[in-house]
Design brief:
Blueprint lengths: L8 H18 L14 H22 L5 H34 L5 H12 L19 H17 L5 H22 L10 H23 L1 H7 L9 H11 L8 H21 L7 H29 L2 H4 L3 H33 L2
Helix pairs in contact: 1-2, 1-9, 1-11, 2-7, 2-10, 3-4, 3-5, 3-11, 3-13, 5-7, 6-7, 6-10, 9-10, 11-13
Length: 351
């Protein structure tokens, strides 16, 4: 892909910023700062994913220029190379930890966890409630792929009315989840209601993103001047939400308000952004977003093993160093590993 012709550079930048917020949430020792609402970055990812998928594939699926299985294969090829690299790192760290600390986790259980993880499938591990104990952030990829499959199969039936109905119903259900749980930080653990919540978050976000793309021009006009608002406003609003502290009993309302109103509005505003003097930076953030998301846990563990107590002593400098390292690593991975491997897989399978 030639980044110079990227139409939605500001959306790339927002995705990268959101990934960094997820990183800070999971690496607090590197920062000594707690961005409480960073978990909502996942809901933003889902909305952005739906918007971009609609841009690239909605009409092709509608006109049967691309089949549902081929669409899913394209999605898997897009996600798998970096995911595989992350899984290999996590597996190495896990096996080394079990051996070094003589943990009671059996090798059969470990191999089962790795094998299921290689298929984007969760596994239950004694002593852990996470769907993916080997790397907890994988949970959102699991639900995203399920929702992608639902979308691709149901695309012939997804008129604007049906799509809006799905968004409305899932939005109501998501509101109920937020009020029952107290916030939307749910869906990554085992348990019937947690699994339902994770699926609802992905369905609402991805289908809302699809709806936004289909009606982006009408909605922009209806917002009376949204297209004249600087796309940097979207960055500010999203950062303000993700960095906001807990307001206890009001968190359930803030989370729903953010996901249902603030994030969609921000995506619409950012999608109208044209070229910028910071376009190269925005595109680099977009490039780094997915690797940062799936690699920050194993890389964090490596940093902590090498630097030991220095991580906390030099926080937040160690946090900034981690972010810079991951961004540089992501750019190198894309150029020398991700794009070549995806091209090879596409040539071998999609033809």
């Amino acid at each position: 892909m030639d980044h110079r012709h990227n139409r939605y550079a500001f959306l790339d930048g927002i995705r990268g910023m959101a990934a960094i917020f997820v990183l800070t949430l999971h690496t607090q020792d590197f920062w000594h700062i707690h961005f409480f609402r960073g978990y909502l970055a996942v809901d933003l990812f889902f909305i952005l994913s739906g918007f971009v998928i609609a841009y690239a594939y909605d009409e092709k699926l509608k006109c049967d220029k691309i089949s549902a299985p081929k669409f899913l294969l394209i999605r898997l090829i897009r996600l798998y190379p970096v995911y595989l690299l992350s899984l290999l790192l996590c597996s190495f760290i896990l096996i080394e930890t079990i051996w070094k600390h003589k943990l009671s986790v059996g090798y059969g259980e470990t191999l089962n966890m790795i094998a299921l993880g290689a298929l984007f499938l969760p596994s239950q591990v004694a002593g852990s409630s996470y769907l993916f104990s080997i790397n907890p952030p994988y949970w959102s990829l699991f639900f995203e792929l399920i929702t992608n499959a639902v979308y691709a199969i149901s695309r012939p039936l997804l008129s604007n009315v049906v799509l809006a109905s799905i968004v409305l119903i899932s939005g109501i259900c998501l509101t109920v989840v937020s009020f029952v749980h107290g916030n939307l930080d749910v869906g990554y653990a085992w348990g019937f209601w947690s699994l339902i919540a994770g699926f609802l978050r992905s369905v609402f976000g991805i289908f809302f993103g699809l709806l936004l793309f289909r009606h982006r021009l009408i909605l922009s006009t209806a917002l009376k001047g949204a297209k004249f608002i600087s796309p940097w406003l979207a960055f500010f609003m999203i950062a303000a939400i993700l960095a906001s502290p807990s307001f206890e009993h009001y968190d359930k309302i803030i989370d729903v308000f953010s996901v249902v109103l603030i994030f969609p509005f921000s995506v619409l505003v950012a999608a109208q952004g044209e070229t910028s003097r910071f376009q190269s930076l925005l595109l680099i953030l977009g490039t780094a977003s997915y690797p940062i998301y799936v690699l920050h846990e194993p890389v964090k563990n490596i940093f902590q093993y090498v630097l030991k107590d220095s991580v906390e002593i030099y926080a937040p400098v160690s946090g900034f160093a981690l972010v810079v390292f991951l961004i540089v690593l992501s750019v190198l991975i894309e150029k020398w590993y991700d794009i070549p491997l995806r091209s090879w897989l596409s040539n071998k399978t999609l033809r």
